[in-house]
Design a protein that fits this description.
The chain has nine helices and eleven strands. The chain is α/β, with parallel strands linked by helices.
Amino acid sequence: MHAIIAERVDALRRWLEEQAMDALIIPHEDEFLGEYIPEHNERLHWATGFTGSAGAAVITREKAAVFVDGRYTVQVRKQVPGEIFEYRHLIEEPALQWLLDTLPQGSKVAVDTRLHSANWLAAAEKTVSGKLTLQSIDRNPIDTLWHDRPAPLLTSARLMGNELVGKGSTEKRTEIGAVIAKAGADAALLSQLDSICWLLNIRGGDVSRLPVLLASALINASGGVTLFIDLPPA
């Protein structure tokens, strides 16, 4: 497995050179920003071999590091090759500080903005301002290089009765719409799968260990919802 990881890291470094980038940040989160993610979005696992539910990695043209919290200090050393990655603490030695300490001033760091919250991006820009450039990328190189990437698991939605969930979706949507209106906004984007399933009182089996569906949603100030979701195979 370590040889495979080495090949993947080398491929990502070739991508960095081709794109004139100096580093790539690989968070555990996917575009739905949840802790538990579907198999086809396990990009951190693909690049490092790490299977924990929280962490990140950074790959530069010459170095690499993996960042995990205290739960995974033993596991990460068993799964991630130490001859390729430095082991760092996710909170005490964050990835951005490692980049600031590792890269020369003016270096470009590739970021797939879909995989980060708006708050993280704003804080990150402030942290590296004047020292590094965070460069948004249109396509994640892992998605291109992952040739045997599993297909998404798409299941049918199950509508839950109010006797099971305690409150109807119409009531929930009205309440959330009022909050949006009070904030002076027209709509809110929902990306977290558990939030969408709670709001619409639906459940599914698209993610292991979570009764959710892969979807995004827009809710407007009047409580109306537009759901973006792929249909399961017929």
